[in-house]
From TrEMBL:
InterPro entries: DUF2188
Region (Disordered): 1-80
Origin species: Xiashengella succiniciproducens
Residue ranges with Basic and acidic residues bias: 15-60
Pfam annotation, one family: DUF2188
Lineage of producing organism: Bacteria, Pseudomonadati, Bacteroidota, Bacteroidia, Marinilabiliales
Tree of life domain: Bacteria
Protein name according to UniProt: DUF2188 domain-containing protein
Length: 80
């Protein structure tokens, strides 16, 4: 099953930031600041059990976070 994603992306037309579901043409919600967009999107990602993927102003992905069942969890390098 593919993972669900929610992206926080800059809005080049209106300025500010948008929260969008994967492959969505329209934003779920628009915000003036990235902090507002991240706070709202984090709560939505928790509800949806999805991956939160923030983007920088240059469009590059910055520190994604999984709030659901991650199909590729990081492998623990520590031995006990």
């Amino acid at each position: 099953m593919p993972r669900k994603e929610r992206h926080v992306v800059p809005n080049s037309e209106k300025g500010g930031w948008d929260s969008k579901r994967e492959n969505a043409e329209r934003a779920s919600k628009h915000f003036d600041t990235k902090k507002e967009a991240m706070d709202w999107s984090r709560e939505k990602a928790k509800q949806e059990k999805s991956e939160l993927i923030p983007h920088g102003k240059d469009g590059k992905i910055q520190n994604p976070n999984s709030y659901g069942k991650d199909p590729n969890p990081p492998k623990d390098k520590k031995r006990q």
